[in-house]
Every structure is written in C-alpha cells, then in structure tokens.
Amino acid sequence: xxxxxxxxxxxxxxxxxxxxxxxxxxxxxxxxxxxxxxxxxxxxxxxxxxxxxxxxxxxxxxxxxxxxxxxxxxxxxxxxxxxxxxxxxxxxxxxxxxxxxxxxxxxxxxxxxxxxxxxxxxxxxxxxxxxxxxxxxxxxxxxx
Length: 144
What we know:
By secondary structure, the protein is of the alpha/beta class. It has a domain at 26-104: Rossmann fold (3-Layer(aba) Sandwich), CATH 3.40.50. It has 5 helices and 4 strands. It has a 4-stranded parallel β-sheet, with helices on both faces. β1 (23-26), α2 and β2 (46-49) form a beta-alpha-beta unit. α3 packs parallel to α5. The radius of gyration is 15 Å and the shape is globular. It starts with 6 loop residues before the first helix and ends in a 42-residue tail after the last strand.
C-alpha cells in the first residue's frame, strides 16, 4: 500500500479510520495530493472523486444525510475551499455531520497576490462546530 510520505496526511487518514469516518469525497488538486494518496491507498475507506468542489460538497452532504454517518471532504486551497460553503452551511443548520479538510498554501504565500491563496484559518467559523489549523511541522505519531 502506497501511503503518502507526508506525516500529516498519514495522521488525518489514521484519525478518520480510528473514528469510523470511512467515507470521503475528494476534490483533487496539487496541494491536497498527499491526502488523496493516503485516502485512496486505504482499503478501509470508500473514496469518491468529484472535481467540482460545490458538487462534491453537496454530494458528501447527501451521503452523510442518507447514512447518518460523518463524511470527510477535502480540497486544495483558496477559492476551492470557499466553493464548499453552501453545503457547509446546509449541513450546519441541518445537523448533518461533515468534516472539511483543506490543504492550505504556505503562510509566506498569504496576502502577496499568489493564486488560489486566501486567509483560510477559521473560514467556516460561523457554520462549524470545530476549527483547527494543522501544521505539517507539528505532526507527530505516537505509537504507544
């Protein structure tokens, strides 16, 4: 099995499996390639790939609604993430469990006019129960 060499992608995959979040919807991009590699390599996970982020988010919303189980959706950075927002708001007000993971750009690329770059931290704050900013350099695995 060829998992991503990126520790943070491995951790996100492991956490999803351990918490029985076994369905994911991927909107592929270059920044989230490590997540795509890890999720698609794992036989325990059912993964769908939908290029259009808005469609992907509503598809995931429907899956979560029908199965009554959380679905993780993930995309690349910037405006791709914002395309998830209508489905995120719908999920929030309908109490449907969606987990959103976005691969952000490096912090030194923010606010300098670099493409696909926005201030992503807490972007869904008003329509989510929890927000986190995971940093690759801080990722650790404790096997004990």
